[in-house]
């Protein structure tokens, strides 16, 4: 997603994640952008190590970016965690809270950090909250009550923030991916390879998605191409919902 925004003309893309140092994937994207013709020093990728659960720290990251760049146009709130299968009748309070802290509070704090800067500069902006198809359906045979609940909260957070921020020309939409092969799902799928086939059979496309298949929708939502779109949830699930 960071690469897509840089390619589309973003001057600087700040990636916020937990590790002190950025990972290999981030370094590869930065090296790729540096080689890309036509960007002429634009499309700068920056890395900031912060915990999205820390509201004060997140607001400070927003201020730092605003001070350095003099603007804030788009934000993608994507941090999320998924816990192992746990019976909903036995679900421990601490584990439930841990998921909410990242998937709900962290998403709010990220959106606030960017939205406060968009408000400060007065040029509007676009905030994209990464929800999930699991916010509006339940993954069959998966005991993920905390994750599913958290993603439903993101859908309603989107509508609520969109209504409050519309007059400031700050748009808020959610993106709900279906099954995508990423580090999060690989940690689960790679231990039980038969699940990959099962997940693939759950949508009419007969396969799970790739992260790059979210590039187009993110670029569209972040840009003026979607200037009348707010409070919407965009599903990219290979048709999982259609069945
Ligand atoms: N992979 C899928 O099939 C799928 C489907 C629907 C929605 N999603 C959502 O997409 C988003 C990205 O997930 P992904 O699949 O790329 O998994 P991922 O595990 O690769 O990415 C999640 C990222 O969140 C970061 N993170 C976790 N806790 C954090 C914290 N406290 N502070 C800062 N960063 C933190 C992790 O370090 C990681 O980089 C998540 O919100 C996830 O719920 C994924």
From TrEMBL:
Family annotation (Pfam families) = adh_short_C2
> Which SUPFAM superfamilies does its entry note?
NAD(P)-binding Rossmann-fold domains
Q: Record keywords: Cell membrane included?
A: no
Q: Does the keyword Transport apply?
A: no
Q: Which domain of life is it from?
A: Eukaryota
What GO molecular functions are on record for this protein? oxidoreductase activity, acting on NAD(P)H, oxygen as acceptor; oxidoreductase activity, acting on the CH-OH group of donors, NAD or NADP as acceptor
Q: Which family does it belong to?
A: Belongs to the short-chain dehydrogenases/reductases (SDR) family.
Protein name per the record: NAD(P)-binding protein
Natural source organism: Obba rivulosa
